Amino acid sequence: KLHNFDPVVTQLNITYIVSIKLTMRNRKSRTLLCIVFFAWMGLLSVYFQQDSGLRTLQEEGQEVEAQPEEEQVAAFDEESSDEQEVDFVQEEDQEAEEYHAEGEQVEESEEESEEDIAVEQDETESPEDVDYDNSVALIESSDDEEKPIMHTFYEPVGEGGCCGMTKEGHEHLLDAWKKAWEDAGWETKVLTKEDAMKHPDFEMLDERLKSRLAVTEYNRRCFWRWLAMASLDQPSGWMSDYDTFPLELTSERGLEIAAEDNSFKSYGLGVPCLIHASRDEWDRVIHLMMDNLPETRHDVGGLVTDMYTLQNVDSWHGRSDMKWSNDVGMFFLYDKDGEDGEVYTNCSKGAGKLAVHLSHMACETAWDSGLFPPVEDAEDKAGAVQKRANAAGQLMDDYRNHCVVTTE
Questions:
Q1: Count of other CB atoms within 10 angstroms of residue 163
Q2: Cα 88 from chain centroid (whole Å)
Q3: What is the 3-state secondary structure (H, E, C) of the chain?
Q4: Confidence label for 404 from pLDDT (cuts 50, 70 and 90)
Q5: Residue 273 pLDDT more than 70?
Q6: Hey, how many other C-beta atoms are within 10 angstroms of the C-beta on 374?
Q7: Are 387 and 377 in contact, with CB atoms under 8 Å apart?
Q8: Cα–Cα distance measured from residue 277 to residue 127, given in angstroms and rounded to the nearest whole number
Q9: Spatial contact of 372 and 104, defined as CB atoms under 8 Å apart
Q10: Do residues 153 and 228 make contact, with C-beta atoms less than 8 angstroms apart?
């Protein structure tokens, strides 16, 4: 029956039968018949063992091919995820290096001004680079009585004012600053020369700035604010320029940051327009700055300002345990559709920003771009700078009306 199923067996059977017939003709060859019979049985045994092994291998191969598609995909995904994790870590390291380099390269020389930084950041977040989904900031309202204090420093420079603004213009801007931060849930406090004079190094530093380095009246006052913050009654404090206005830095956010970290952190990179630090950190950094001042006016390569001095500490000695971040916008939150299109509030320009710094350069840039808010008596760039208080008030109203959702 086997020959009906396998041609090899059939050939072996025929060979066996022929052998029997040949041997039967010679009775003396019966012994040979027995040998042929047992040889035949051995051949069949070897054949079937090999065939059985081959069939087992074929069945195992079919099982591999029939493996469920989900299991094969899962195995591939597991291998791919390992490769993606490596790629992600490499990409994350690269982004961290780029971010660190960005912070270290901001204003490498003394000749680069605050206005240059404003232009650089404005170009970084230009209208072509942002997604205008007009996203809104989610602000949680709170009835808690505890409020953080936002400090600023103001000491008039004579009766005529300075820096493109009259004394009246500065005071109006100071009032707009107070209103904006108090509307955001903060208490405000204006520090003066009297607060700076509480610091034991006030006389020494001011004499050095005035007599040895011929620093201007306005820029001497910029150094005074550091001494005032290092002489606070409380253990830590916030300070902002009075042309810096809150966006997502609510009082609740301010309390959270202060509770988590009291190290020195400048939120405007190398522009000290928004800083939080402990009193000891304020004192430590101002002494680093004092140690990096030139010895005489002949050693000065340009203006001596607190901003340049802070940046020189970073350039010459590294970050020195300071923290810098790019959380302050240096521009107005407006945009327009096309060259002659209608101006609108672009909320995405302020997304993720704690505050906005409306510096001289920010006003002039907005004016040249046709993005300065409509303000009475602002007929040119000089008028735009003088009317910064009005422009800031308009911007805060537009931001609240278009970009903020308050949850009770």
A1: 11
A2: 16
A3: CHHHCCHHHHHHHHHHHHHHHHHHCCHHHHHHHHHHHHHHHHHHHHHHHHHHHHHHHHHHHHHHHCCCHHHHHHHHHHHHHHHHHHHHHHHHHHHHHHHHHHHHHCCCCCCCCHHHHHHHHHHHCCCCCCCCCCCCEEEECCCCCCCCEEEEECCCCCCCCECCECHHHHHHHHHHHHHHHHHCCCEEEEECHHHHCCCCCHHHHHHHHHHHCCCCHHHHHHHHHHHHHCCCCCCEEEEECCCEEECCCCHHHHHHHHHHCCCCEECECCCCCEEEEEHHHHHHHHHHHHHCCCCCHHHCCCCCCHHHHHHHHHHHHCCCCCEECECEECCCCEEECCCCCCEEECHHHHCCCCEEECCHHHHHHHHHCCCCCCCCCCCCHHHHHHCHHHHHHHHHHHHHHHHEEEEC
A4: confident
A5: yes
A6: 9
A7: yes
A8: 33
A9: no
A10: yes
Separation CA 252–CA 139 (nearest Å): 9
Q: What is the pTM of this model?
A: 0.67
Q: What pLDDT is attached to residue 163? A: 84
What is the C-alpha separation between 214 and 303, in angstroms, rounded?
Answer: 9
Cβ within 8 Å of residue 142, ≥6 positions away: 185, 251, 252
Q: How far apart (Å, rounded) are the C-alpha atoms in residues 196 and 204?
A: 12
User: What is the distance between the alpha carbons of residues 341 and 348, in angstroms, rounded to a whole number?
Assistant: 18
C-alpha 53/C-alpha 50 separation (Å) is 5
Using CA atoms, how far residue 262 sits from 103, 224, 322, in Å, is 20, 21, 11
| Other Cβ atoms within 10 Å of 107 Cβ, number | 22
Residues 6+ apart with CB under 8 A from 59: none
Is residue 264 within 8 A of residue 284, CB to CB? The reply is: yes
Q: Which amino acid is at 254?
A: G
Question: Which of the given ranges, 61-75, 225-239, 379-393, has the highest pLDDT on average?
Answer: 225-239
Q: Are 199 and 224 in contact (CB under 8 A)?
A: no
Tokens of 24: 């039967």
Integer-rounded Cα Rg, in Å, for the chain is 41
Cα(375)–Cα(384) distance, rounded to whole angstroms?
A: 8
Residue where the block lists tokens 């209208």: 127
